[in-house]
Amino acid sequence: MHELPEHLRADVEALWDYHNMHHDLRPCDVGVGLGSHDLGVAIHAADLFHQGVFPRIVFTGANAPTTVERFPRGEAVHYREHALELGVPDEAILVEPHAKNTGENIELTRKLLASEGIEVRSLVLISRPYQQRRAYATCKKLWPEVDVICSSRPLPLADYVRSIGDTKRVVDMLVGDTQRITVYAERGFAIPQHMPGEVHAAYERLVAAGYTSRLI
């Protein structure tokens, strides 16, 4: 199934828009591509590099159960290879191949850049579209002094669903990330984020509709 069910579209759109931080891009010291099943992260990172938004990219990520078949050598390794194919020079890419979650993405990237003697005052966090808010909240918790801009491949929701090729997977991930905004802040993994009532109501309706495979 590659199309959103019409009766769920408004609720899915509400979550989709909530997770987009709507940050304006500006030049930063480094771009950080967060590993996932979505090769669009590497594509967008390469695009921003070629636009001159940052002079260096860190790709970070090992494997998750959802990515090991697609990226058997690790998310960051495959992202690097794709960025090279898109014309990013090898010397502009660093690979952090060990992170298994967003917190480790941030912490291990920070350590890698420090070990390379690279001072970072600002960065662009490049992620799946629906991961922006959680990535931002995690980064501000673990690396509070850095100026963070979130960015994703600028696809409308319907186009993104088609690019992934699995509607239920995308909606399940959206629902799971919405839950994590609250749960991770409560657990001290991320800073709190305001969630409007209409977003929470949309989340509850999608849970009731059975989009629950990514819930904690």
Automatic annotation (TrEMBL):
InterPro entries: Cell_Envelope_Assoc, DUF218, Rossmann-like_a/b/a_fold. It holds the Pfam family DUF218. Residues 41-145 form the DUF218 domain. This is DUF218 domain-containing protein. It comes from Streptoalloteichus tenebrarius (strain ATCC 17920 / DSM 40477 / JCM 4838 / CBS 697.72 / NBRC 16177 / NCIMB 11028 / NRRL B-12390 / A12253. 1 / ISP 5477).
